[in-house]
Amino acid sequence: MKVVLGVTGGISAYKAVEVMRGLQKSGVEVQVVMTKNATRMVTPLTFQSISGYPVIDGMWTPTHDPEIKHIELAQNTDLILVAPATANILAKFANGIADDFLTTLYISATAPVLVAPAMNVEMWAHPATQENVEKLRKHGVLFVDPESGYLACKTVGPGRLAEPQQIVQKALEILGKKKTSATDKATYDLLNENILITAGPTYEAIDPVRGITNRSSGKMGYAIAEAARRRGAKVTLITGPVNLSPPSSATTIQVKSAAEMYDAVMQNLAESTMIIMAAAVADYTPAKKANHKIKKGDGKIILELEPTKDILAAVGRVKDGRVLIGFAAETENVEANARKKLINKKADLIVANDVSRIDSGFEVNSNQVSLISLEETINLELLPKMEVAEKILDSALIIKQSNRIHP
Ligand code: CTP
Asked: Less Cβ crowding at N or C end of the chain, within 10 Å?
């Protein structure tokens, strides 16, 4: 087991020595990578003397083994752990800035990444940092959150580096899980797949300023797109209006209404090998869209709605050997209702979630779902959406490989 321990320039950089020792005591090989600012806080020699290995402290430093190149290291590490992680490194990771060894390593690695932020209270609370953290979580980065306490800047609040022992513990958990968990895939098992994914809500206009929509943040569909890309698939993401940035290197098609989503899916169906419909499509749309804003009157008004086309069912009719996965958001009789959808829409898997739970489903980052196929029902525990995404992709692949596609 090999871990890259990234040390950045926070006041708590000295605690990284303890993290390194904790990992080594557990039999983990540690390669320390320091940023330029970190070397001002602790000398590379400290890490080198204690670990017995040379430290990488720059892109071009002659001190490190010339054999170690960032790509080679990126491919041969089981975990990238950054402790302490400054606001600056979080911002660089979140935005793909690669201007030194650690940031270049991060962007070229497929191993899981665990970061332990440490900074001043205001820096941690700043919307820029929180947005970066949110973005990184979406990219699958795992966190050991900072603790509350008395900080070097003489204030009290969240920002202090988590205890080294806790960081080591979390790193070992991830390494232990690696053999069995689908989350830590470093393989490209979807290289031959072309996956069409729908995500987010649709918006059905009533007039130029009003519309009907569904509750959906798009997080689940975007997580599937991100995970599929990482596993080597070609991804086309058809998305309704959401506040998320599209995953890197997926083809993203923005749509608004159910009718637009239907057209986009049908236009891209031929090339796809798997279709995953995570979008919350409106079931009804106004029969007539007013061209001008409807003015308020005294009495009631009646809005006439007509059904939209069911995209999942339409694809089910012409799927022709493709793996088709749908979602079911239920508030009661989850399994029975989802199974009905599986049969009626000729899907191969329905991902069912009970949206009456507050920690699962809409807007949150976790989801508790059941994977319902013709043969079985698998009830998963409450998991981060990125892990749910991996499980869905695992199931899609198993269905395809075992030729269990609904005719
Ligand atoms: N779906 C679709 N096109 C629609 C409606 C839904 O493709 N016009 C897809 C969704 O993307 C999701 C699944 O169908 O994968 C949800 O099934 P659906 O029958 O729409 O669920 P509900 O609308 O919740 O159905 P019901 O109201 O009967 O529970």
From this structure: C
Beta bridge partners of 322: none
Task: Indicate the SS3 state at residue 282.
Answer: coil
pLDDT band at 69 (very low <50, low <70, confident <90, very high): low
Q: Taking all residues of the chain, what is their mean pLDDT, rounded to a whole number?
A: 89
Q: What φ, ψ does residue 189 adopt, rounded to 5°?
A: -80, 0
Q: Could you tell me the distance, in angstroms and rounded to a whole number, from the CA of residue 80 to the centre of ligand 1?
A: 40
Would the pLDDT of 183 be above 80? no
Can you tell me the mean pLDDT for 238-248? 87
Q: Whose CA is nearest to atom 14 of ligand 1?
A: 312
Cα-to-centroid distance, 288 and ligand 1 (Å): 22
Kindly report, residue by residue over 207-230, the tens digit of the pLDDT.
Answer: 999 999 999 999 999 999 988 987
Give the separation between CA 116 and CA 113, rounded to whole angstroms.
10
DSSP string, 345-407: TT-SEEEEEETTSTTSSSSSSEE-EEEE-SS-EEE--SEEHHHHHHHHHHHHHHHHHTT----
